[in-house]
From TrEMBL:
This is GPI ethanolamine phosphate transferase 3. GO terms for biological process: GPI anchor biosynthetic process. One of its GO terms (cellular component) is endoplasmic reticulum membrane. Gene3D superfamilies: Alkaline Phosphatase, subunit A.
Length: 110
Protein backbone atom coordinates (compact mmCIF):
# COMPACT_ATOMS: atom_id res chain seq x y z
CA UNK A 1 0.00 0.00 0.00
CA UNK A 2 1.31 3.41 -0.94
CA UNK A 3 -0.17 6.46 0.79
CA UNK A 4 0.24 9.80 -0.99
CA UNK A 5 -0.97 13.05 0.51
CA UNK A 6 -0.38 16.12 -1.63
CA UNK A 7 -1.56 19.61 -2.42
CA UNK A 8 -2.00 21.14 -5.86
CA UNK A 9 -0.42 24.55 -5.09
CA UNK A 10 0.76 26.79 -2.30
CA UNK A 11 -0.44 30.17 -1.11
CA UNK A 12 1.15 33.40 0.09
CA UNK A 13 0.41 34.82 3.52
CA UNK A 14 -1.90 37.33 1.80
CA UNK A 15 -3.94 34.49 0.28
CA UNK A 16 -2.68 34.80 -3.30
CA UNK A 17 -2.24 31.60 -5.28
CA UNK A 18 -1.66 30.57 -8.87
CA UNK A 19 1.23 32.99 -9.42
CA UNK A 20 4.94 32.44 -9.88
CA UNK A 21 6.17 33.16 -6.34
CA UNK A 22 7.78 30.18 -4.58
CA UNK A 23 5.05 30.26 -1.93
CA UNK A 24 2.48 29.78 -4.72
CA UNK A 25 4.26 27.12 -6.74
CA UNK A 26 5.46 24.86 -3.92
CA UNK A 27 3.05 22.36 -2.41
CA UNK A 28 3.24 19.67 0.23
CA UNK A 29 3.79 16.00 -0.59
CA UNK A 30 3.89 13.16 1.94
CA UNK A 31 4.51 9.62 0.73
CA UNK A 32 4.85 6.45 2.76
CA UNK A 33 4.79 2.78 1.81
CA UNK A 34 2.90 0.66 4.30
CA UNK A 35 3.63 -3.00 4.84
CA UNK A 36 0.91 -5.40 3.83
CA UNK A 37 -0.91 -7.25 6.59
CA UNK A 38 -2.46 -9.62 4.11
CA UNK A 39 -5.91 -8.18 4.80
CA UNK A 40 -7.47 -5.93 2.18
CA UNK A 41 -9.60 -3.04 3.30
CA UNK A 42 -11.57 -0.46 1.37
CA UNK A 43 -12.75 1.49 4.39
CA UNK A 44 -10.74 4.69 4.89
CA UNK A 45 -10.39 6.19 8.37
CA UNK A 46 -13.30 8.56 8.89
CA UNK A 47 -12.34 10.21 12.15
CA UNK A 48 -9.54 12.59 13.01
CA UNK A 49 -8.51 10.28 15.86
CA UNK A 50 -7.80 7.53 13.32
CA UNK A 51 -5.36 9.83 11.53
CA UNK A 52 -3.52 10.97 14.67
CA UNK A 53 -1.41 7.80 14.52
CA UNK A 54 0.23 9.17 11.37
CA UNK A 55 1.58 12.29 13.08
CA UNK A 56 4.75 10.77 14.63
CA UNK A 57 5.62 9.07 11.34
CA UNK A 58 5.04 12.29 9.39
CA UNK A 59 7.27 14.25 11.76
CA UNK A 60 10.03 11.65 11.53
CA UNK A 61 9.83 11.53 7.73
CA UNK A 62 9.89 15.31 7.38
CA UNK A 63 13.45 15.32 8.69
CA UNK A 64 14.56 13.67 5.44
CA UNK A 65 12.78 16.20 3.24
CA UNK A 66 13.35 16.45 -0.50
CA UNK A 67 11.94 18.66 -3.22
CA UNK A 68 10.26 17.39 -6.35
CA UNK A 69 8.93 19.39 -9.26
CA UNK A 70 5.14 19.56 -9.46
CA UNK A 71 5.29 18.74 -13.18
CA UNK A 72 6.89 15.37 -12.28
CA UNK A 73 3.92 14.18 -10.21
CA UNK A 74 1.61 13.34 -13.13
CA UNK A 75 3.95 10.95 -14.95
CA UNK A 76 4.99 9.33 -11.68
CA UNK A 77 1.41 8.84 -10.48
CA UNK A 78 0.44 7.57 -13.92
CA UNK A 79 3.19 4.95 -13.75
CA UNK A 80 2.21 3.93 -10.21
CA UNK A 81 -1.43 3.54 -11.26
CA UNK A 82 -0.58 1.72 -14.49
CA UNK A 83 -2.03 4.50 -16.64
CA UNK A 84 -0.50 6.07 -19.74
CA UNK A 85 1.42 9.29 -19.20
CA UNK A 86 -0.46 12.19 -20.84
CA UNK A 87 1.01 12.98 -24.26
CA UNK A 88 1.74 16.65 -23.58
CA UNK A 89 3.27 16.14 -20.13
CA UNK A 90 6.75 17.63 -19.79
CA UNK A 91 7.61 16.03 -16.45
CA UNK A 92 9.81 13.12 -15.53
CA UNK A 93 9.66 10.30 -13.02
CA UNK A 94 10.30 10.79 -9.29
CA UNK A 95 12.58 7.83 -8.49
CA UNK A 96 12.08 8.15 -4.72
CA UNK A 97 8.34 7.52 -5.11
CA UNK A 98 8.86 4.61 -7.47
CA UNK A 99 11.37 3.10 -5.02
CA UNK A 100 8.71 3.03 -2.29
CA UNK A 101 6.78 0.37 -4.16
CA UNK A 102 8.05 -3.20 -4.11
CA UNK A 103 7.92 -4.86 -7.51
CA UNK A 104 7.25 -8.16 -5.74
CA UNK A 105 3.95 -7.02 -4.26
CA UNK A 106 2.71 -4.50 -6.81
CA UNK A 107 1.66 -4.64 -10.41
CA UNK A 108 0.55 -1.54 -12.37
CA UNK A 109 -3.15 -1.50 -13.03
CA UNK A 110 -3.55 -4.69 -11.04
Amino acid sequence: TLLLLLGDHGMTEEGNHGGAAPEETEAGLFAVALGSTGEATTTPPRRWDDLQGWLPMAQECSQDRRSVAQVDLVPTLSALLGLPIPYSNLGGMVPDLLDLVSTETWAPGG
